[in-house]
UniProtKB/TrEMBL annotation:
Start and end residues of each DUF4166 domain: 18-196
Protein name: DUF4166 domain-containing protein
InterPro entries from the UniProt entry: DUF4166
One Pfam family cited in the UniProt record for this chain: DUF4166
Lineage: superkingdom: Bacteria
Length: 201
């Protein structure tokens, strides 16, 4: 099974609005034998009290949210694909001091023309992809639970909030990764930002 470059396909003609370095970064696909690995430091990893509760309650579906807070947290991001499986696996490992490494794995893939990011237990979110000022943006449009081929939309109030991810090129091989989650009533539940670079092969 071939792995489609979902991000490039979603952007279409707007792909060329991305910074050339961002294009180069996302214009290739990893494999099991040749994963793409990024090392970096999160300047800030934040969750509110409500965010912490969401993180604790979602442990049963594979730790999709970090319950820990901290500054200057080393982190590794490993991208791979798997034979016979669609999508790209994103494995994020946080190295909080005095704690076991905290690992989050999700899959970004296309489904009938829609981009989604899946975590454990059939839960995921549909993503809108855009290029803005040379940056790559992902915004969640709806959280869902997938059962077989059926998608059950989840109420917005039952989610940790609208997700917004920004990939911003900084030059010299570095880029900034920022993710925020904002709930209509609970306000900001999660925020993380840090600078990364690709690990040489």
């Amino acid at each position: 099974m071939q792995h489609q470059n979902t991000i490039k396909w979603q952007l279409g003609k707007n792909w060329h609005q991305l910074h050339p370095n961002v294009q180069r970064r996302f214009n290739r696909l990893p494999t099991e034998q040749q994963p793409i690995i990024y090392d970096g430091v999160m300047d800030e990893v934040y969750c509110s009290g409500a965010g912490w509760l969401f993180a604790v309650l979602t442990k049963v579906i594979g730790n999709p949210l970090s319950p820990h807070r901290g500054q200057h947290i080393p982190m590794e991001v490993r991208l791979t694909t798997r034979p016979g499986q669609s999508g790209v696996y994103w494995q994020r490992t946080y190295f909080f001091p005095d704690k076991k490494p905290f690992q989050v794995t999700s899959i970004k893939k296309d489904d009938a023309g829609r981009m989604m990011e899946m975590v454990g237990g059939g839960f995921g979110m549909f993503l809108d992809v855009s290029a803005e000022d040379g940056e790559l943006h992902f915004r969640s449009s709806r959280y869902f639970w997938k059962f077989n081929r059926w998608y059950l939309p989840l109420p917005h109030w039952l989610s940790p909030g609208a997700t917004h991810v920004i990939h911003q090129d900084l030059g010299n091989g570095d880029f900034r990764f920022t993710i925020s989650m904002d709930h209509r009533w609970l306000k900001r539940t999660f925020y993380q930002t840090g600078v990364f670079h690709e690990r040489p092969n």
